């Protein structure tokens, strides 16, 4: 992608805009929106896509490390070239070792590496004259008559001012909004190669509950196999606080040696992240012409941590609204009913009213896989949601449903580090 560090200087707010759209952040949300906007055009200018300026962080510490995003879909992805691996069967293992394996046709569970995704999207944008990227640290975004201005610092300490009709900010929030319930999904994973065949490359272990359970919340192992000897193995917790790196390493050693029994292995890489699981309401609008997208705009599913698929839905909807000539505001990533069900589940887990391992194992065992995946995407009908709800602990659930409207939303303690969408995975941005 062509880079520019040109410093914009304007003396009169009535002057024209530098571009139609400015996108702050070049991660999954920012790049996805640029990708979709570049393939559309406003009414009256048929075939002319909006001009887009993508602002990538100048400070290296603000750029997220290499990470994994997982999602499921029917057919081929528009990012299929960057898909590292995909599977059509999922496994959930209970605390007693009883495993349930299900085919998920017509869906496939897919894995992307952030570097491959970024390279693919940037390559597609690089030849488009209406798209450019700048490197700068953004300090402020403010409304202007008919648009907005982004103020930042570019290389060499130079001031950068960009004006656009619309601004989309994908930077994770420094503080989470007020909430009734908040847990953190935190994890560490190893990319491993074993000395002997140890994995079934056709099946993802989505949740393996044969891990020591924390006093509050739950934990599980997660295995994405790439071949008989290669896999990503993660230890994940839903709990109030992250662990030390030493504690994650100890948990992974226990899981690979004692639970999986896979013998000698070589750790070839690792990933680690923290995803907020909260019933907080993330405001998607920050000004007349300023919007939040991605995790900052509520795209992370509170009950699972998956983000990537919601980011794509959000980006397509924004591009479609732009092309129609409507206000291109990001839509709610999930329906009010889905968010209400997430709030109930989080409260159940947070207060220990349900055994999380039995909750998820039972849900996977008794619900058809295709319907469960649609449920996790917020794409089920009311009757299907009721049928799924009847498979949960009824009495604690009804108590929680009754009390939620009466509970105040409180300030959430500062999150340790920036939220990671590993939509990675979620256990995404992006597994459950």
UniProtKB/TrEMBL annotation:
<feature type="compositionally biased region" description="Low complexity">
    <location>
        <begin position="418"/>
        <end position="432"/>
    </location>
</feature>
<dbReference type="GO" id="GO:0016853">
    <property type="term" value="F:isomerase activity"/>
</dbReference>
<dbReference type="Pfam" id="PF05834">
    <property type="entry name" value="Lycopene_cycl"/>
</dbReference>
<feature type="region of interest" description="Disordered">
    <location>
        <begin position="410"/>
        <end position="432"/>
    </location>
</feature>
<dbReference type="InterPro" id="IPR036188">
    <property type="entry name" value="FAD/NAD-bd_sf"/>
</dbReference>
<protein>
    <submittedName>
        <fullName>Lycopene beta-cyclase</fullName>
        <ecNumber>5.5.1.19</ecNumber>
    </submittedName>
</protein>
<keyword id="KW-0413">Isomerase</keyword>
């Amino acid at each position: 992608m062509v880079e520019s560090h040109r410093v914009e200087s304007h003396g009169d707010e009535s002057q024209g805009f530098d571009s139609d759209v400015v996108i702050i952040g070049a991660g999954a949300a920012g790049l996805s929106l640029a990708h979709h906007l570049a393939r559309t055009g406003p009414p009256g200018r048929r075939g002319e896509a909006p001009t887009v300026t993508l602002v990538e962080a100048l400070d290296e510490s603000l750029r997220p490390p290499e990470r994994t995003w997982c999602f499921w879909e029917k057919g081929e992805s528009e990012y299929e070239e960057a898909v590292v691996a995909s599977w059509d069967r999922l496994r959930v293992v209970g605390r007693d070792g009883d495993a349930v394996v299900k085919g998920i046709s017509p869906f496939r569970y897919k894995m992307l590496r952030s570097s491959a995704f970024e390279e693919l999207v940037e390559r597609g944008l690089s030849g488009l004259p209406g798209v450019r990227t700048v490197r700068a640290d953004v300090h402020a975004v403010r409304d202007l008559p008919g648009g907005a201005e982004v103020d930042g610092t570019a290389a060499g300490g130079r001031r950068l001012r960009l004006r656009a009709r619309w601004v989309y900010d994908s930077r994770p929030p420094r503080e989470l909004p007020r909430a009734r319930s908040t847990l953190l999904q935190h994890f560490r994973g190893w990319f491993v190669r074993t000395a002997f065949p140890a994995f079934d490359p056709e099946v993802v272990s989505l949740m393996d509950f044969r891990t020591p359970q924390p006093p509050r919340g739950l934990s599980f192992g997660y295995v994405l196999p790439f071949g008989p000897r290669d896999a990503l193995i993660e230890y994940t917790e839903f709990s109030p606080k992250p662990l030390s790196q030493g504690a994650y390493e100890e948990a992974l050693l226990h899981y690979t040696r004692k639970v999986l029994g896979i013998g000698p292995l070589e750790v070839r890489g690792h990933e680690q992240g923290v995803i907020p699981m909260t019933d907080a309401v993330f405001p998607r609008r920050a000004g007349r012409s300023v919007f939040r997208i991605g995790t900052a705009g509520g795209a992370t599913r509170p009950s699972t941590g998956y983000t990537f698929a919601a980011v794509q839905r959000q980006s397509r909807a924004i591009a479609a609204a732009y092309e129609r000539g409507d206000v291109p505001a990001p839509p709610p990533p999930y329906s009010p009913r889905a968010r209400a069900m997430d709030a109930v589940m989080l409260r159940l887990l947070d207060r220990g009213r349900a055994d999380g391992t039995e909750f998820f194992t039972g849900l996977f065992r008794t619900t058809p896989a295709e319907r469960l995946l649609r449920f996790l995407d917020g794409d089920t009908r009311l009757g299907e949601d009721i049928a799924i709800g009847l498979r949960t602990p009824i009495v604690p659930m009804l108590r929680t449903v009754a009390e939620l409207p009466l509970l105040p939303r409180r300030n959430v303690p500062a999150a340790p580090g920036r939220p990671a969408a590993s939509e990675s995975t979620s256990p995404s941005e992006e597994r459950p």
